Amino acid sequence: MKTTRKPQQKRSIEKRTKILEAAFILFCEKGFENTNTAEIAQHAGVATGTLYSYFQDKVDIYKTVFESYLKKEVSKMLSELECEINNHTNISQFILLWKDSYLSLFGKPNRALKEINSVMSKVQSLNIFFSDFETEYAESIYKILKEKYNPEITFEKVWIAFLLIDELSKEYVSSRHKKINYNLLEKQAIVFIETLLSNDGG
User: Fold this and answer.
1) Which of 24, 53, 112, 188 has CA 20 to 30 A from 31's CA?
2) Residue 14: which residues within 8 A CB-CB, separation 6 or more?
3) Phi and psi dihedrals of 19, rounded to 5?
4) pLDDT mean across residues, the chain
5) How many angstroms separate the CA atoms of 105 and 103, rounded?
6) Which pTM does this prediction carry?
7) How much is the pLDDT for 202?
């Protein structure tokens, strides 16, 4: 495996940042498959060799770009949830807050998220990478629910709830089936999730 370096000096850090900023724009505009490292280097104003001194390959750049993006967005989402917990002790209120915070990010057109979903279906190594990230997010929600609301809850139940909320967000972004009453769909989904997460049974 080729050795890359972690920049320490200000100028090197700035170059690496420019590469990531250029990559984010290009990946969102053209997609992973239609973007190459030479283009990224050109848009960043650096030599291609310089790019490879910081990153292994295009996949490495992609992971770095979108991991940073997702961590920032999810961290913000989780912080907002945790801030509201002291004012909302009822599990049903927490579920509503969780649903709203998730849909505020994932339930609207977003080029970055659209690109991530696209590449997950095409590049196996990136599919695994982002799937692991989804698991980390669900584990954070599981920890909150277990500590604050239901110490008997299982991770599998939280995962089912996460999948349902995620599917709701996909409905809003891409599906929009004509015969579906989305207000009713949301209400019924929340009732199902509340029943699922409030139950102590296996």
Assistant:
1) 53
2) none
3) -60, -45
4) 85
5) 5
6) 0.79
7) 54
